[in-house]
């Protein structure tokens, strides 16, 4: 069953771009890394990126990262979980992550 999401709901799926060492290396291959909502599926992520950034998406890989323990003083718990999406864009398309200030 496919959910139909409006533009506001699609914008809420993409939380933020992730800037890590691996993510900057992927930029050379026209791949961008985003933190997305944990329940977001690949077709929804594709539609969200295409509508937000006006680009053509050719592929998506998603990763659900494992839980990691976190300790603050004597209290122990887990870090919040998040889902990572690696989005491959069509040749010639790009997303400006660092706009000129």
Walkthrough of the structure:
With 101 residues, the chain is an alpha+beta fold. Helix content is 25%, strand content 33%. It has three helices and six strands. It has helices at 7-13, 21-26, 42-53; strands at 14-17, 31-36, 57-64, 69-72, 75-78, 83-89. The strands form two sheets. A four-stranded antiparallel sheet has the order 1-2-6-3. Strands 4-5 form a two-stranded antiparallel ribbon. A hairpin with a 2-residue loop joins β4 and β5 (75-78). The chain is globular and about 50 Å long. The model has no long low-confidence stretch (mean pLDDT 90).
Average pLDDT number: 90
What characteristic shape results from the CA principal axes? globular
Q: CA-to-CA gap between the ends?
A: 44 Å
H/E topology pattern: HEHEHEEEE
Estimated share of beta-strand residues: 25-35%
Describe the structure concisely.
The protein has 101 residues and is an alpha+beta fold.
Which secondary structure elements does this structure contain, and how are they paired or packed?
Blueprint: H1 7-13, E1 14-17, H2 21-26, E2 31-36, H3 42-53, E3 57-64, E4 69-72, E5 75-78, E6 83-89
Antiparallel strand pairs: 1-2, 2-6, 3-6, 4-5
Helix pairs in contact: 1-3
